[in-house]
Amino acid sequence: MEIRIELTKTPKEKPVPGQKLGFGRLFSDHMFIMNYKTGKGWYDPRIVPYGDLSLSPAALCLHYGQTVFEGMKAYYGEKGDILLFRPDENFSRLNSSNRRLAIPQIDEELCIRGVKELVEIDKDWVPREDGASLYIRPFIISTDPVLGVHPGDEYLFIIITSPSGAYYESGLEPVKIYVESKYVRAVRGGTGMAKTGGNYAASLLAQDEAHQQNYSQVLWLDGVEQKYIEEVGAMNVFFVLDGEVVTPELHGSILPGITRKSSIQLLKDWGLKVSERRITIEELDRANDQGRVLEAFGTGTAAVISPIGELKWGEKQMVFNGGKIGSLTQRLYDTLTGIQYGRLPDPHGWSVTVCKG
Ligand code: PLP
Ligand code: COI
Questions:
Q1: Is residue 71 in contact with ligand 1, taking CB distance under 6 Å?
Q2: What would the pLDDT profile of 251-265 be if each residue is shown by its tens digit?
Q3: Which end of the chain has fewer CB atoms within 10 angstroms, the N or the C?
Q4: What atom in ligand 2 is closest to the CA of residue 301?
Q5: Mutation pick for ligand 1 pocket among 259, 308, 333 (CB with most ligand atoms within 8 Å)
């Protein structure tokens, strides 16, 4: 399918070098859109000027949350190349989210082509500052103007892009995280493994309460017994424990992070043992009291590799590595971002070039 292109006649002011970008606040000049209708399939892929959508107030997605999304980034490389990181993984996960939300499958190859063309058209929006990138947000919404609860017959697939800085204002400073024991985010058989708006809506009250106590995010425990560690609001978690690296296994209620998968691969490349297994918050606490937990960190596209300095669990404060970034966390951050920005060799072929500098 050919992608139609309509360029803006009124390009916006781009951020000036050194300007504080924040996360997901500014948007580039163009967006990718494609429609779906039952019987017709996906049609009319196009890149058009960024702008508001016109939706019926009865649109399904507004009432019943039939939405999915992805998060990826374009990086300004060493030699001026623009690079994507494992975009095939994002669109394969989008299709897995689609399956769970009863949304029709999309053509992953067309999506990758769409994102590459969009980023190339808006390449001057890719920030050049250290640690900044063009955050890319593909998403799908159901748009039928019908209030009965049913899977949609009409959808929009859209990709918008946003020049962004670090997700956490603290940058690489270790984050403090609140272990949530009252609310739950997801249960096995639910939608935890899908990237859908409802999971994030369900997390907001807990996040708000954590913020009020000065914690930047929530660590979710399993939705049944509230014993097992699952993940943080926008990242998967890892602990360096007893000489191995432990991360909760994927069993349906945790998002299968692409940064998680890439980190496991890098750690194994370095000869480290990585255990994907169930781990209770009690086990972690006990091990930490006995000095057996050397480091804790989170992984995510927006969060990159984020050291965890402290977990607050009930009255207990678990501090890791004296609240400072650990050496393995730093090595993982340096290696992953080195590959993403094209500064280091890419032995697994994860980087995809959008255009040469
Ligand atoms: N877990 C949740 C709930 C997330 O929203 C994210 C971010 O996308 C992640 C984990 C990390 O996933 P990824 O590394 O693919 O960005
Ligand atoms: C990402 O890391 O890309 C995410 O989607 C996390 C987020 C909800 C901002």
A1: yes
A2: 999 999 999 999 999
A3: C
A4: 2
A5: 259
Is residue 247 lining ligand 1, measured as CB closer than 6 Å?
no
Query: How many Å apart are CA 280 and CA 248, to the nearest integer?
Result: 9
Domain co-membership, 118 together with 249: no
Question: Residues 20, 92: one domain?
Answer: yes
The pLDDT of 332-339, averaged and rounded, is: 96
- Domain range holding 48? 4-164
In terms of pTM, does the model score above 0.85?
A: yes
Looking at the CA of 258, name the nearest ligand: 1
Q: What is the pLDDT of residues 189-245, one digit of tens each?
A: 999 999 999 999 999 999 999 999 999 999 999 999 999 999 999 999 999 999 999
Distance (Å, rounded) from C-alpha 318 to C-alpha 214?
A: 15
Contact 29, 12 (CB under 8 A): yes
Kindly tell me the sign of the dihedral angle through the C-alpha atoms of 191, 192, 193, 196.
positive
**Which ligand lies nearest the alpha carbon of 90?**
1
pLDDT tens by residue, 13-35: 999 988 899 999 999 999 999 99
Measure the CA–CA gap between 156 and 141, rounded to whole angstroms. 6
286 Cβ contact list (under 8 Å, min separation 6): none
In a domain, 208, yes or no: yes
The answer as to whether 250 is a domain residue is: yes
